[in-house]
Amino acid sequence: MMSLDYRILYREELSGDELAERSREWTLFISAVNDTERVRDIFAQVNAASKHWLVHDEYGYAADELPTDDCFRPGLANEAEFWHTYAQQANPDTGGTVCLDLTGFMRPHVAYFAAWMFGQGTDRFLALYTEPKHYKSQESTEFTLGTVNEVRQIAGFEGVHGTDASNDLLIIGVGFEDELIRRAANDKPGARKLQLIGLPSLHADMYQQSVLQASQAVDDSSPPSVLFAPANDPFVTAQVLRDRVTQEDERKPITNLYLAALGTKPQTLGFALYYLTERQHTATSMLFPYCERYSRDASTGTARIWLYDVQRLTATN
Amino acid sequence: MLAGRRNPFDVTKAVDYSDGEIYDSWVDLDNGGFAQLVDPTSSTPQFLLGGKGTGRTHLMRWFSQPVQRLRYRNQPPHKGPLAEKYLGISLRASGLNSNRFGGKGVPAEVWKDVFAYSVDLWLSLEALRTASIAWCELDDYCAQAAAIARTIAESFDAYPGDLPDSLEQLSADMRTTRREFDLAVNNASWQRTLGDLTIRATQGRLPFAVPQAFAEHLPAVRKVTWLYMVDELENLDERQQRYIQTLVREKERPTSIIVGARAYGLRTLRTYSAGEENKEGSEFSALELDAHHLRDPTAFRQFCRRVVAKRLLMAGYVSGNEEAVAAEFDDCFVTYPQTPLRDEEVAFVLRDAGERRYFTKLRNQMREAGIPDTSHDAIIGALHVPEHPLLERLNMFLLYQRWAAGAQLTTAATDIGAEARAYLKSRDSSSEYANHLKRRRADILAKLLQEYDRRQRYLGMDTFVQAAAGLPRNLLHILKRIWIAAEFHGEEPFAPGAGPISERSQRAGLLDASEWYLPENLPLGADGERVEIAVTRIGDLLRAVYFSDKPPEVGLSTISVDERELEPEGRATLKVAAQHRVLVHIGAQRDKSKGLRRSKYQLSPMLCPRWDLPVTRRGALALARAEAEALFDPNSEHFDKLLRDRVQPLSAPFRRSNETQRSLLDT
To answer: Which residue from A148, A158, A256 is facing B186, i.e. has the nearest CB?
Structure first.
């Protein structure tokens, strides 16, 4: 079996001062506009050579609510079109050190960013994530507004699937929103379900909240099968996925694998990293339940700041 | 308690079963069985429709080659298809991941062709795979394999590479082609083009060429129908479904097709064959399985009982044959004796100290109506049947009826009391009073439970079958949750000699299933929001009317509406709600007096417990145009007023003027 360990990738916790200092080395910092302190404050502290705001129309901002400088609005496009439109609008310099603040981005756009970077030959980028102190309504927090419009594969994460569906597997990275979990689960009714839960969670209470939501939404026949990965660690998330998929595949070959990253943004990055490193062009897809609107301000406060050194790994025999 | 017993109702979806379990858990219908409804050897394409959990997937897998093989265990793999005269090729449309085929800067016309070719490859590859398993032990298979492969390859307009000399090579070449296609489709996300993708076969050729080639070279299989079973059609959008409809229309022998879809999932009957539309009875036959079950409740009840018996037998919790086990179910659940007066069931009224709550309420209503206190005792006294609360409460209902009609209350109460006593003495079932009792018994019981702050009772297997509304999976969900509740309460559900499942476990399980049902069945997007609002309002309205003093109909869980009066959005909401089985379309009836044709929709019996409504269907609440509009317009602000206006005339003192109220006491 090929050897690969995502845990060798580096992550570190930064203070505000460290962030300000370290970011002086960055060529480009990209963040998505929303109302939370943990996005606005971080953007202000970063000292990158260029700083770009990107606007998700899903947040429903009017033009006069947006920052005036270096703010780009690709429109209500899918995640691939979003990034390519941004590239056309901003002509960003991605040749240097690029840092993406995951915090305000939609999860499919986080995933596609990684696909875009790796796809154009950039094998390394930085990602930043700032934990909230709390979500506003605990386990009832709604990050999405309105209902799910469609469940589809994330652009760039569409697999090459076979006709045999006798042992399909869906791994759902569960978060707080039972509607999303339910829709993802229902989209692949024939697939066996595994739930990846954030543990350690960002805060002690968040683990119970995730479990509560997942239990309400995944009505599967078999006893709930769960795996755990730290909510703030994309690299352990990728490793946990790799280990479990390998284990499942050895037990009985998986016919089609579906991944739905509905938990934290770092976990989403972990799902994407695992996919891009090992599952591209296989019978594996990442799914996402899409909504028209998202909440601009679902959390309060700023807790820990994490910096991830994301690199494309190569398996060795 | 038997700790650690696996819940035999855990598996609620056929997709979670292995082929062996599909075979082992198979239960047929009475009177000719499913074969009477769906003929796998028919050359006419068939559409299998219905709600979520109708048993469609189980049925289609029953027809599939792996399960055919199990029916002919220890025999060569061709034995089953040859004996049954069909080869079942089973596919799920969700496996196409059809959302990929759109957008990405590629014109819709191109996607149409690319999707069609992908479907052709998908079907023909699965046909090849299935055939190679089913026919591999036929005498001349090995000798003819190369010829079959070449014949299929020649049906390509431009075969990718050299012609194959084996079926394995053909499959490998086709898989490579499909993979190239998939990669191009996926890469179009950022490349904004499909590149130099080549479609190598005429649309619709390959899925029929594979069976034809086998039939040409293997005489033994010539009389076998190759049955493509495409399930989960709802995963395809309208444009994509048009291609499936085209295949249905253009199919060639020896191929036939069964298409499975949820009721909401059949988006079009149009084809790409000059835009023609497929017609039922001409190009295809159709069966709505749950509607079929609802039309024959006796057969459905028997079927459900056998399904449950089979589960218990498979789990090893009972022994015997299905019929014998099914016959024992009535003893597995706490129920109450169905005596005419339900004395045991309403004994809680007798245990409550003080004046009967409903009489206290009547006193207050009479006071509100301005009826002097001095008359109250006489009126209430006339209605007394203290040892039979059900009759007493029926008497009160009859009094409300006469009160609303303007009758004089003392006289009315005296008459009703006399009728009750006469009935008690004679038990004459032909009397008008007995008829009231028979019609209103369940409603009066529900009212008593409500007035005494008790949860409604939904007890016994037949009640759960009714709640399932023609969808066997619903029954399994109910029983799964009852099992969990029972074990939580320290009971031993279905264990021999362990006693029946308690009332509280049954109630908890059904309510839990009811709560699960709505979010599980709401459509995606804005439709889901509209349906949720409409269904919630219907439930609120029905409950308010059902528990009013003088409900106009018995057993209310149904509305009737003249759909022509509705705005298009309202009509669409009704249709979508019925397609998603949160409402059940009962049919239409003509209201001759008003020249209207009214459609009836029952709130799904799975949802009725959320509103304390009966799971059985009897009367229907006729909605006026303004009421229907307020119900189905999610932005309407009139619903609360509508609710008040609807219920007020049904509530004592029936909004009569002071003069009229006084006249009620005039002698």
So the answer is: A158
